[in-house]
Specification:
196 residues, mainly alpha, Rna Polymerase Sigma Factor, Chain: A, Arc Repressor Mutant, subunit A
């Protein structure tokens, strides 16, 4: 087991896929603090965070056994993305199950723009904007794109982004700054307006 702890994430992944179950134990132990902290920070409930953390690694194990993991060199980012998706799923389910009573209020709660559904046109425009932003992000240089994806799609702090990309916080912030400058330039070049 001591020898396993010295191996890289990718070597441990390969070892697990080859049949060494101890490798996944080392991976979980190595990344549990960071991933659990992130989940807990998002859901703010200990038991729920434990459930999502556990489900994340169940999905990791299933994906590894099915050969769904591509050797990207960023195992922890992959697990973080799985956890992030589970958190989003949880909040979607919770939103769909929420019930609000109108009886305790002097005014009509439900006759509010805040609670009204977006029109089909608004939804289409919003989805188009998301799609265009995603296309623009893909055009960024790799190091800038990585910072944007980690920060805005995975919700990592700049400190976590710096750790994931093995650079200083100042470098991560600089890459984000240049990414935003490049995104604005690309929007102007392609004559894209991102307003609803």
């Amino acid at each position: 087991m001591k020898k396993l702890k010295t191996l890289s994430d990718d070597c441990l992944v390969k070892g697990f896929i080859a049949g060494n179950a101890s490798c996944i134990d080392v991976l979980i132990e190595r990344h549990k603090s960071k991933i659990f902290s992130y989940v807990l920070m998002c859901v703010k409930q200990q038991e729920l965070a434990e459930d999502i953390f556990q489900e994340s690694f169940i999905r990791v194990i299933r994906s590894l056994k099915r050969g769904k993991y591509s050797d990207t060199g960023k195992f922890s980012s992959w697990v973080m993305r799985i956890s992030h998706n589970l958190i989003i799923d949880h909040f979607r389910k919770q939103k769909n199950q929420s019930v609000v009573s109108n009886d305790n209020y002097e005014f009509d709660l439900f006759n509010s723009v805040k609670f009204s559904e977006k029109s089909v046109e608004e939804k289409l425009v919003y989805n188009q904007i998301l799609s265009e932003v995603g296309d623009l992000v893909k055009l960024l240089p790799d190091n800038q794109r990585e910072v944007v994806e980690l920060r805005h799609y995975m919700g990592l702090s700049f400190k976590e982004v710096a750790e994931e990309t093995n650079v200083s916080i100042n470098t991560a912030l600089g890459r984000m700054r240049y990414a935003l400058i490049n995104l604005r330039r690309l929007m102007e070049e392609k004559n894209i307006s991102l307003s609803i």
